[in-house]
Design brief:
The chain has 98 residues and is mainly α. Helices cover 48% and strands 0% of the residues. The protein has three helices and no strands. Helix 1 packs across helix 2. The longest helix is centred in the first third of the chain and has 19 residues.
Length: 98
C-alpha cells in the first residue's frame, strides 16, 4: 500500500475502499447512480444528497466498518473528501481499521 499525499495519512487503497463503500451506500440511499462523478471535491448537496441522506449513509458506514463518529464531527461536512476523512479517522481508531 502506498501512502497518499493527503495530510490525513490515508493510503490510496484505504481511500479507494472507503470511497467505494460511500458510492455503494449513496446509490442505495439516494437511488442515484454516481459512477465516476464522485470525487473528493464533490459537494454532497450537488450530488443530490441532503442532510437526511448524509445521516443515513454515515450510519450505514458506521455499521459496515464497526465505527462510531461523534456528532460534532458531522456538523460541517460539505464535500465527499471531508466525509471520507471523518470516516477514516474513526476507522483508523478501531481494531478493524488499517
Amino acid at each position: 500500500m502506498s501512502v497518499s499525499n493527503a495530510p490525513d495519512g490515508i493510503t490510496s487503497e484505504e481511500r479507494r475502499e472507503i470511497t467505494e463503500l460511500f458510492r455503494s451506500l449513496a446509490r442505495r440511499v439516494a437511488k442515484v447512480d454516481f459512477d465516476d462523478r464522485v470525487t473528493e471535491v464533490s459537494v454532497l448537496a450537488d450530488l443530490g444528497l441532503d442532510s437526511i441522506h448524509n445521516l443515513e449513509i454515515i450510519g450505514e458506514m458506521e455499521r459496515e466498518l464497526g465505527i462510531e463518529i461523534p456528532n460534532e464531527e458531522l456538523e460541517d461536512l460539505v464535500t465527499v473528501g471531508q466525509l471520507l476523512g471523518v470516516v477514516h479517522k474513526a476507522w483508523k481508531g478501531t481494531d478493524g481499521g488499517p
